[in-house]
Fold this protein.
Amino acid sequence: MHRTPEGPAPLPADVRAYLDELVRRTRTVCGPHLVSVLTVGSIALGDYRHGRSDIDVMVVVAPTLPGAALAGLAGVLAHPALPCPATGLELVVHDRDAVGRPSGGAGYLLDLNTGPLLPNRASFDPARSPAFWYVLDRSIARQAGRPLFGAPAEQVIAAPADADVLAALRASVREHTDGEGHLADNRVLNGCRSAVFCRTGRWTAKRAAAREIAASEAGFRPVVEAALASFERPRGTAVPLPPADVRAFLDWVRERVDATGSLRH
C-alpha cells in the first residue's frame, strides 16, 4: 500500500507508521463520512526524499461530515500531537460532491500545514488561499493518487479542465519566479515538472522531469543540474543558485505554458 509506483523500495519505516496512524485518526474522527485518504505529491509520483520532501495527503469526505469534525481532525493530526517524521505534512480535506466535479477553485474544507519545518496553519476558508495549488494537487491526485483508505482517486476526483490546469501552471510559475518563501532548487525543479507536463500532458516526479529538461535543453542544463545536486541535500543546507539563471529558466517555462495554452484553443 505504501510502495511507490516507480519501484519496489518502500517508504522509510517511520513514514509508513506515520501514514498508518494518520489514517487511523482520520477514520476515528470522520467515521462513516470518510470516503478516501490518498497520498499525492512526491509519494504518489514515486520521488519522496526523506529530509527534503513533505508528506502530501488528500482526504475526501461525504458532505454529511459535521463541520466540527474538521477542527477536531486538524487538532489530532497537527504536529506534535501526531509527530511528523518528514519536513512537514500538507493535508487537504475535500467534500466528495465538490471534488467529483471539475473546478478551477481551491474548494477545500480544511487545509492543514504542520510539521517540524512548517508553521502550523489550519484554514477552513478556501477564499483565503490561491486556488492554483489545489487545482494542481487535484490534477496530480487524479493521475497518480495512491489510496491509503477507501475509494481510489479516479472514482472520487474529477480531472480539472485543461484550461484550469494551464491557468494554475501559469500562477505556479509566477509564484516561483517571485521566489518568496521558496528554495531556488525547488523553484527550478517545479519549473521542470511544469515544462514536462506541457510536453506530455502527464505529471512526472520533479527529479525525473529535471533530468529530461537537462538532457533536452542545453542552455539550461547548468542551472537544472545545479538544482538537482542541491535537492539531494537537506533543506537547511540547500545551495543558492544564480538568481538571474533561475529567473531566465522560469521565464522560459512560462513561455512553454503560454504556448501550450495557445495550441489548445
User: Anything to note?
Assistant: The chain has two domains: 13-156, 162-263. Residues 51 and 212 are 24 Å apart (CA to CA). The mean pLDDT is 94. Strands lie at 34-40, 55-61, 89-95, 110-115, 118-123, 146-150.
